[in-house]
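haha ok so turns out i had the wrong file open the whole time. this is the CORRECT one, sorry everyone. sequence first:
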Amino acid sequence: MEILHVAAECFPVAKAGGLGDVVGALPKYQNRLGVYAKVVIPMYRTSFLYQEEWELVHEGGQYLHEQFFRYSIIREKSNKLGFDLYLVDINGLLDREKVYGYADDTERFIAFQLAVCDWVFHWQHLPSVIHCHDHHCGLIPFFLTQVNQFRSRLHTIPTVFTVHNAQYQGAFAWDKHALLPPYDPWKWNILDWHGQINPLAAAVKSAWRVTTVSHSYLKELMTQAGGLENLFEYEKGKCVGILNGIDTEIWDPSCDPYLLFHYNKDNLVEGKRKNKEEICKEFGMDSSLPLFSFVGRLVGEKAADLLPVAIQDALLHNPGRANYIVLGSGQHDIEYQLKELRNIAGGFYNCYIGYQEALSHGLYAASDFLLMPSRVEPCGLNQLYALRFGTMPLVRRVGGLIDTVVDVGDAGGYGLCFNEASVWDITYTIRRAIHLYDNNPKEYATYCKQMMELDFSWNKAAANYIQLYQQLK
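then structure:
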C-alpha cells in the first residue's frame, strides 16, 4: 500500500504549527508498520532546503487562469526523515521563506495542488490513497474527480482529508473562479459554501473519508465549525476522529539534544529541578517556586488574550508563590500587553515574544505546570509534550484536551481541568496547582511519573489510519 501525504507543512522542513509536527511524524510511523508512506509539500526557501541533497524527479507545467507556470518536483536523497520527501518548486509562487501570510496565498496553494495532481497523473502507477491535510490541499479531492484533465485517470484514487483546524478554511470569492482548471459546470455547488469557493467545504464534500484529529473535536464540529456545522452534520457518516500522537523520539527528555540535563521517570524530580534552575537563571527568577508556562500562538483561539489579566490576577492573589513564563507570538496587542506586564510583575513573570525551538523544549522540561486555556483545540500537541516531560497540564475541557487530560479529582487523573475560557477559571486552577505543589509534593511527583508513563506516541494513530485506508479498497 502506497500513501501520498499532501500538506503545506512538514517538520523539520517547514513548520508554522501543529500541522507540521503531524505530517513530519505520521508517515514515519506508518512506514514502520509496513506501508509505503511519502510526503509532498511546497518548496519554501527554508534552511532545510540548503542543508540536504536533492534529486530532480519530475518537471511539468500547468495554467493558473491564463498564466502558464512551470513546476519541478525534487526528492530528498537520504530519507533522513524516515519517509520519502518531495518538494514542489514554482518560481514566483512557492519560493518564499514563510509558509503563509502572503496576499497571493490563494494563488500559491491552487498552483501547488495543480502541480501535485499533474505529477501524480504522470506516474506509471497510481498511489493507493492520497491523504490531504487541511484546506491548503482541500481542492485535490475535487480536482481528481471533477477536473477534465485529471479525472480520466485519477478519479478512482481514494482520498482521505484530515481537518486539523476548521477555523481556517481558505475561502475566496467567486471572482477568482478562473484560477481553477476547467471542470463539470454542473458541479459548481461542490465548491460553494455561503456564496464563496471554500476549499475546506469542498474537501469534506469530495473526499472518500474525512478525519479529525481527536474524537471530541469531531463532535464539536457539529456545533462549532466556523459556519460549516451543517455540512459536518450532513457528512458525519464518512467522518471519523483519530487522535494525534507525538514523535516520542524527538520529544524524549532522556536524550533531547535541546536539554542541558536529561532525565526519565526514575530521576524525574532531580532532572526537572536542574532544568528549572537553568531556565530561571536565564529569566531572572527564583527556581524554588513552581513554574507555570505557556507555549503557543498568541491568538484568541488559544485564549492568549486572557493571559495578561489572568497572570496579573494570579500574581495578586498568590504573591511570591509562583513564576510564569510565556513563549509565543501572534496578535500585536497581546504581545504588547505581555511585554508590559514585565514592568509590574516583580521578577515573578517574564516572556519571550517569538518562537525558539530550543526554548520550547527547555520550558517543557523546566516547568511544573503548562497553561492551555484554549477556546478551540482540535487535538493539541503541547499537552502531550508536557505529559511526556512530566509537566502537569492545566487545560480547558475542549476538543482533544478532553481526550488526553484527566483531572486529578477524577479516577486515574493526572492533570488539572476547567470548563470555561475565562480569567476566573484560569486563576482558580492556578490556585489548585499551587496548593497541590506546596502542600502535597509527594502526590504531585506521583502524578508526574504517571504522566510520563502514558503512551501518546504515533503508533496507535498510524495503525488506525492504515486500517481506515484498507477500508477504501
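Residues 105-121 form the longest helix (17 residues).
again sry for the mixup
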